[in-house]
Amino acid sequence: MDTSSIRVLLVDDNELWRRFASTTLRKQAELQVIGEATDGLQAVQQAQELLPDLILLDIGLPTLNGIEAARRIRKVSPTSKILFLTENRSTDIAEEALSTGAGGYVVKSDAGSELLPAIEAVLHGEQFVSAGLKDRNSIDNDRALREKVVASSRFQSVERHELRLYADDTAFVDGFAQSIEATLENRNAIVVIVTESHRANLLQKLRADGVDVESAVDRRLLILLDLADSLSIVAVDAATDANRCAGIPQVIVEAVRTAKDGHRHVAVG
To answer: Lowest CB count within 10 Å: 25, 95, 169, 233, which one?
Structure first.
């Protein structure tokens, strides 16, 4: 396929998500958004009419769900590649979605960092399954291949300021906990800035997942800050220049310095 101009159809009944996806894609010269659909039947009709190269497809659609829409799309536009973009984290649902012939499955809360690498993988005929999907062992998603795709993606932004949107507090806690766990597993530090209630729920979730929270806190790998006390925080490069640390809590500055000494990274969320 000539990747100089990839024609993309967006399918999602949530206007905010269509806007996010459209804005993300339009920043890439190779990607051209040629249409948007808000329900499954409309998606099938537009796929047949437009014959897009790539379809970003939600699952929870009105009229016709995304999985059934994908099956019909395969018949009317067999050359279109399909990438599911959904908040559904069920492994069973993911397996059923991929069984339609779709090339990828991205959890919306991870779309800020995964959408472009997923598109890259799918366009090259490789399968991409979101890191935010629980219990992925039964899904063929070789981790080394996935990391290679993410690292080499020509669509991948060099910036790491990610936007994640959550449907409700439960999705927020689950998604944020997974990010924390992934950061700690890689022996990196993370600064968590949340409300008091969210902090309590996060700690409960982390402990339930087997994370040694106390040890992570003692080793300065997990730093918990209250949102109300941290509104003055500004972005900082991994700096040791005191002039660039004005307005930033000392605990974050120390975390950056500790991480730099240990060749680690610091995530702030």
So the answer is: 169
Distance of CA 106 to CAs 9, 94, 128, 248, Å? 16, 9, 8, 34
Indicate whether 136 pLDDT > 50. Answer: yes
| Domain made up of 6-152: CATH architecture | 3-Layer(aba) Sandwich (3.40)
How does strand 81-86 pair with strand 6-11? unpaired
For 179, phi then psi, to 5°, come to: -65, -40
> What is the pTM for the complete model shown?
0.57
Give the residue-averaged pLDDT of 235-263. Answer: 48
Phi, psi of 158 (to 5 degrees): -80, -15
| Residue keyed to tokens 């992934």 | 182
If we measure between CA atoms, which residue out of 141, 216, 153, 209 comes closest to residue 177?
209
Residue 267: its pLDDT value, please? Answer: 53
Q: What is the per-residue pLDDT across 4-45, written as a single tens digit (0 to 9) for each?
A: 689 999 999 988 888 888 988 988 989 999 999 999 999 999
Phi-psi region of 7 (alpha: psi -120 to 50; beta: other; left: phi over 0): beta
Q: What residues does each domain of the chain span?
A: 6-152, 169-268
